[in-house]
């Protein structure tokens, strides 16, 4: 008996596998707002690395559930180093952001782009997708780091 690989059944089986495994991966990207990231408190902790006290994040359950998850989030781009392509995403425009003393550390996020990004304008409002890293271990990085970032059109 000779078995043909391409049959209507093979097409149906392929569609079922695609529907069961590939489509859910796309829907696992969570669209979040900045209010979710507010589920964090800070405690003073001494770092021997920098020989000083710093604000150490203690994440709440809502935020912990997002650690290392793919998310989308919208915010204002703040250029830190245009020549190096270093940017921060902020819940607020520059005049009201963390760097101006108008908001908390939970309102900004460090961006690590998948590929070198285009040159963004200050306060450009955009939507980004990436993997959210909750940083409670590196005093040289922000509380939230979005990794493998790409712009959502």
Structure write-up:
- 18% of the residues lie in helices and 39% in strands.
- The chain is globular, with a radius of gyration of 20 Å.
- The protein starts with 7 loop residues before the first helix and ends with a strand.
- The chain has 153 residues and is an alpha+beta fold.
- A 5-stranded mixed beta barrel has the order 4-5-6-8-7. The chain has a two-stranded antiparallel ribbon with strand order 2-3.
- The longest helix has 20 residues, at 8-27.
Summarize the structure.
This protein is α+β, with helices and mostly antiparallel strands. The chain has three helices and eight strands, in the order H-E-H-E-E-H-E-E-E-E-E. It starts with 7 loop residues before the first helix and ends with a strand.
Could you list some keywords that capture this structure?
153 residues; alpha+beta; five-stranded mixed β-barrel; two-stranded antiparallel ribbon; 8 strands; 18% helix
Q: β content, as a range?
A: 35-45%
Coarse shape: globular
In DSSP terms, counting alpha (H) and pi (I) runs of 4 or more, how many helices?
Answer: 3
> What is the terminal separation in angstroms?
52 Å
Mean pLDDT: 85
Q: In which order are the strands of the major sheet placed? A: 4-5-6-8-7
Which residues sit in consecutive blocks of at least 5 with pLDDT less than 50?
none
SS class: alpha+beta
Query: Radius of gyration over alpha carbons?
Result: 20 Å
Sheet bearing the most strands, described?
5 strands, mixed, barrel
**Which range best describes the helical content: under 10%, 10-25%, 25-40%, 40-55%, 55-70% or over 70%?**
10-25%
Topology as H/E string? Answer: HEHEEHEEEEE
Tell how many strands the DSSP assignment holds: 8
